[in-house]
Amino acid sequence: MKKNLFTVSFLISTLFCVSQTLNINISKDHFKIDQTRSLIISHIENIESFADLTSYTEVILFLDQVAYSFNTLPDSVTYKQSYTISNNSNQFTLYFTSLPIISIETANTIVDEPKVLANFVYADSEQIVTSKIGIEIRGGSSQSYPKKTYDLEFWEDNNGEDTHNVEFGSLRSDDDWILDALYNEPLRLRSYIANKLWLKLHTPYYLPVEPEAKAGANVDYTEIFLNGEYNGIYNLSEQVDKKQLKLKSYKDDIRGELYKGIAWGPAVFASLPDFDNNSRIWGGHEMKYPKEDDVTDWNNLYDFTDFVINSTDSDFVNNIWSKFNYDNYLDYFLFLNVLRATDNTGKNIYIAKYNTNEPYFYVPWDLDGCFGTIWNGTNQNITGDILINGFHNRVIELNPQNYLTDVSNKWLNHRNNNLKTNVLIDSIDKQYLFLSENKIYERESLIYPNYDFNEVDLLYMKTWIQNRLSYLDNYFQTLSLNHIDSTKSILYPNPATNKINIKYKKNLANKKYAIHNFLGQLVKKGELKSHSINIETLQQGNYIITLNNNYYKLIVK
């Protein structure tokens, strides 16, 4: 009897059950399939409308009208989980993404140079861009990585004789783009955050007359497929070039100038080799503008390098800020040291000039080795130093136009705005959370297991930044002459040679002292046992003595 009742009940419920099937349609170019890895990355329109699918008895995904069934009926569709779907006997792992998807197909071998023909498709929620492109591998040591960085140029024809501009999202319209692989970044977010940070910290001084000028390259994340295989997440990056900076065009004479630092040496103002105007390379720089078809003439940059290295102290102090933009110098010095970008003191930066008789300025580039890592992605947990080149060293030593106070005040201004500790930490947490929750780390790990992308790496990065900011706070406070007691100094003689005497006070007995150079490096420390401190081991230059929480300037001659 119980068995019969159960059967009747089942039949009745079946009779009144309403089958509901949900069909999700994804159009061509808004998804890509990696057949080798059985992996699908797809967009989906209005994903929030699929937050509750519990009323459906079947969900079918149509990718360009080809049906795929979910192996397990999903309760929702979200960016934050993966799905197993099947087409006939073929099974795939499916991820939905909010990032643009780029597909590049070529029958050619992609090499360092020259660019080879390929077909390009870009899709996001707003547009689809299809074009012929020229593509080549770019970079130095990064060319040995399994995940390559690429240079793209958008072509009208198969040979690249004519090009055309394209625009992606909020990025500029141009024919020349970079796909930055991020392979040596443990969290795939350092260069993204660094590029965005520079654009917040600095604007070109000539912006009133060139309102579209940018201080550097902007970037956006995208997901890449190359010849049908998933290549992971990339930065789609603008180029640093004449157009980006809005430099003045060549007109029978040099006006705007742009040089890329490609090697060490003169690029860090360490030497002054002869130049050859038959070459586009000199002293660690590559001439990017004027173009080779216009002119190759190194005289201007040579003269500036010569001035920085060899001018008299008086000439340097009086004239350096007419030759190099002061505000740019301050912002870049602070930016360089917040990041501790060890590969960006001369190499991997641009030096540019807007127009004839205008000052030079810096533009950062290739910002992957920063925030506690170096160029190859290795953690370097150093927070207590200052990065400089020969130019920086001379500015610090000679203090032209009260630079030491100005840079300290500039630091305080930025620390109250874009360089607040919580602002930087929040930007890191935001990007990490996005990449983690949206399963981008998960699918990146499927292809490139060189990093774990875990919270240990996140904690390291955030702790490093906190320690770095703390050190720089102390450094710039010490550096500022406004914080140094010069009218009531207890040091004599000053300048000194072998020892410095201290006007002895009882409250100084056995107090600890520390001597730092103007690069923030600790050169001597101890306890005050007498009326003097031996300074025989110190080289000539300027120092700061910290004693009983007071700062005193010391000159060693």
UniProtKB/TrEMBL annotation:
The keyword Signal appears for this protein: yes
Keyword set includes Signal: yes
Secretion system C-terminal sorting domain: residues covered: 491-553
Keywords of the record: Signal
Protein name: T9SS type A sorting domain-containing protein
Organism lineage string: Bacteria, Pseudomonadati, Bacteroidota, Flavobacteriia, Flavobacteriales
